[in-house]
Give the backbone structure.
Amino acid sequence: MKQISGGVTAAKGFKAWGVHCGVKAGSKKEKNDLAMILSERECNAAATYTMNRVKAAPIYVTMDHLEDGTAWGVIANSGNANACCPMSHENAELMSEYAATATGRKASDFVVASTGVIGQTINIAAIEKGVPQVAAGLSADGSDEAAHAIMTTDTEKKEIAVTFTLGGKQVTIGAIAKGSGMIHPNMGTMLCFITTDCAITQEMLAEALHETVPKTFNRVTVDGDTSTNDMCVVLSNGMAENPLIEWKDDNYTVFHKALHQVCEHLARAIAGDGEGASRLITCTVHAARSEESAERLAKAVVGSPLVKAAMFGSDANWGRVLCAMGYSKAPFRPEYVDVKFASAVGEILVCRAGMGVDFDEEAAKSILSQDEVVIDICLHEGDHAATCWGCDLTYDYVKINGDYRT
C-alpha cells in the first residue's frame, strides 16, 4: 500500500474543483467556498451521518438521493450550514439542481453538503452563480481546490490518497475532509468525501465504511460538540477493473485496510487541527477487558477539558487522566492502572498500579511539549485495545468561538 498525491482525483475517472462565490458575506475574496466532485461513471455510494438529533437540510437531501445506493458526484459549500433556517430544504435541493444543470446529470445524482454558521439562510443566489464556474473548472488535478473550498476554521487542508493492488489491477482510494471545531464522536464529526476506482458492490462498500468509521472518525474529539451537518460519503466507480468485490474475501480485507488507513489519516489530521490546538493528543488504552471499554476510557481521557488544559500547559498532571477514566462508566480496576506519557523525545512512567511514582518533571515537560503527545494506559485486565485522538485546549479556542458567527 503506497500513499500518493491527488486526493479525491487520484482515483481513475474523478474530477474536482473549487471556487469562491461569496456564500458568506464579508468572507475573504480569495477563499474558495464551493466545491464539486464528479465521476465519469455512475458510482456505488455509501454514507454515514451525524448522530445529532438536529440535522441540517443537506443531510436529509443526501439521504434521499442515496436511497438507491448510487451517485455521480458531490456539491458542497462552506460559509453557511444551511441548517435551522428558512427555505433550508428547498435551497439544498436547488444546489443539486444547479449541479445537475451544469453537468448534464440529474439532481438526484448528487450528494449535497454544507458547513458553516447555523441558523442563517444560505446565499443561494451566490451558489447559483458559482456552480457553472466550479463545473467548468472540473479537473483531474482539482482536489486541492475542492479541499480548500470545504474548509471553515481549518488551518490546513486535509487530503490523502493511497494505491494498492487487487487481482493484478492498481486500485486507488482518495479523500478530502474538513473538521476543526464541533468535533465529537458519533459520526461523523466533520465532512469527508472519499472516492475510489475499486470495483465493489454497494453492499460491500457500505459494510466497509460502517466498519471503518467507528474506529477512526468516531474516535476523535476536539470539543465535545457534534455538528448538525456531519457526513462521510464514499463513491466507487469501478474503473480500476479489478475483480468485483462481492463478499468478505481477501480482496475485501485489502480494500478495508486501505480505507481504514485513509480514514485514520484524516481523523488524526482533524484532531491535530482542532480549533486553536497546539498539539495532537493520542490516547491508547490496552490490556482491557473489551475493545468497547478501552474505547470509552480513551474517549473520556482525550475529551476531558482538564486533561486537554494540562496538555496545553505541558503539565504531567496524570491524576486528571485517572479522574476522566473514573467517570467514563467503563469497567476497570484503578489499582491495576499504569500511565505513561510519550512523544518523539521519549516516554515517562507517571503512575503505576493506580499510584503516583517519582519522575523527572523537566523530562516530563519536554515530552509533553511536542507536536504529538501519547497518553499510554495499561489496564492489565485483558487483551483488547483502542486508540482515540484529540487535541489540547488553548486560549485561541475561546477566541475563535467567541465571535464565530459575527
Notes: The longest helix spans residues 250-272. The chain has a mean pLDDT of 92. The longest strand covers residues 34-49. The CA atoms of residues 271 and 390 lie 5 Å apart.
